[in-house]
UniProtKB/TrEMBL annotation:
Designated name of the protein: Alcohol dehydrogenase catalytic domain-containing protein
Lineage: Bacteria, Bacillati, Actinomycetota, Actinomycetes, Kitasatosporales
Top-level division of the source organism's lineage: Bacteria
Any GO molecular function: oxidoreductase activity
Enoyl reductase (ER) domain boundaries: 10-343
Organism whose genome encodes this protein: Streptomyces calidiresistens
Amino acid sequence: MRALVYHEAGKSSWTTVPDPGVRDPGDAVVRVDVTTICGTDLHILKGDVPEVEPGTVLGHEAVGEVVETGPEVRTVRAGDRVLVSCISACGRCRYCREAAYGQCRGGGGWVLGHTIDGTQAEFVRVPFADMSLHPLPGAVRSEDAVLLSDIHPTAYEVGVLKGAVGPGDTVVVVGAGPIGLAAIVAARLFSPERVIVVDPAAGRLRAAREVGADVVADPAEEPERLIEDVTGGMGADVALEAVGIPESFELCTRVVRPGGRVANIGVHGKPVVLHLEKLWPRNVTITTGLVDTFSTPRLLRMLAAGRLTASPLVTHAFGLDRMEEAYGVFSDPGNTGALKVVIRRE
């Protein structure tokens, strides 16, 4: 089969690799019909994730058809159309019993495209299939469902739930990339008074308005003063960091009100200065996290019912054999306007 293989920092290729097969009794092999690229994949290609060994097939998001299952798989069978979760869960360890699947100690967690071959390929082996695959209703488009492999559960769980967004809150989202846009969608589910979005790209600010932002601001336009003015000097109830750089995290800590919450969603590759000397007397709560995907079944039901926005986040589509071109477009959003790209079997 063909797959996108990581070789070393800055080097990958769309090349031929052996077809995957069932190795363990709980495995399933899925034919990939739709996949996508995550910002984490770009971090890997930069060499920021040293656990990824040369020769690994990248990718952790997909929708496809089950073609083979191990003897212990009970919830899916060959021919089923399924969502492949970015998190695999053994279902037996302490963390899985607590629905903290991202911390699985039984061989799961974030493994696809990280410690085992991933989804940016024609086929993928999915471990712990009963816990890691979700059958899809016929009414749900594959191009929409693939966004529930990672970014929607991440925004919902790590951002909105950990940030405890509630009715009447002022929510500030710093970063209007795919995760930030998904965070806007998720925040709107909890009836905040307003959602304010900060991002330097005009195109992303337009996208933020399309999915529900009430106020948008460029970082060069003194967003701290804007937020202070809009909130009557109080500051944000919740600030969601959706970039993964020191400047965006520190901005969140400056705009949050006393007693407010900062939920860090972004993947950070560099140290961040934590100004505890300013934060501790203000009763600010800071949360971090890797997605667990316990919310995926609920989000799928909401998507099927038309209560969850997905399509506006997709800006480009490619065939599988244009994987390298898709990476080029996704990695240069300033020139291409890319948000989320989908790559599909043609």
